[in-house]
Amino acid sequence: KRLAYEKDPNSPITKATGYMGGGCLAGTNYARVTPNGDLTPCPYMPLSAGNIRDASFVDLWENSEVFNSFRYPHLKGKCGDCEYSEICGGCRARPYVDHGDWMDEDEWCLYTPKGGEKVQVAFNVTEPSSVEWEAAAEKRLSRIPYFLRAMVKKGVERHAVEQGISVVTIELMEELRKRRFGNEKPVFKF
Fold first, then answer.
1. pLDDT tens digit sequence for 161-187
2. Is the N or C terminus of the chain more exposed, i.e. has fewer CB atoms within 10 Å?
3. Is residue 166 part of a domain?
4. Roughly how many angstroms between the first and final C-alpha of the chain, as a whole number?
5. Both 79 and 141 in a single domain?
């Protein structure tokens, strides 16, 4: 992302988050459930935020100290000093393996921070849409886990525009869900 930002600060790449945006996804856009039920922020870190047999996934995701430390990080070393830490953040698994501290610097990063103000980019900026949402469809969208909601909304609206549909309905959402997942029930109840 640093390279994209240096070339064009307004590049869509610098504004992307989650799976489309690069950077570390641990605890922000990714979680792993181990075979015994432990919830970890990264498949490369045996760092449990709790067990889904003892607490709900949503409760652990939203309230655990482990996951919140990834969302509101206090990075150390050159990652903490780096002007690009807000759009990159480095890998958190490597310092955990190297030093036992996932907030330490990512020693594999070859960039040397130059100091100065932190680069700030507006993530997930909602672009105006010509598509309207009926109230019931908006309610259903609100029940989708927040880390997936923007991606789902964007995909539904893109489909609606391509098909000349002006209002998103529950029926349209259900049609798209079935197209994507077949008749399987969703993991999360919508």
1. 999 999 999 999 999 988 888 777 665
2. C
3. yes
4. 34
5. no
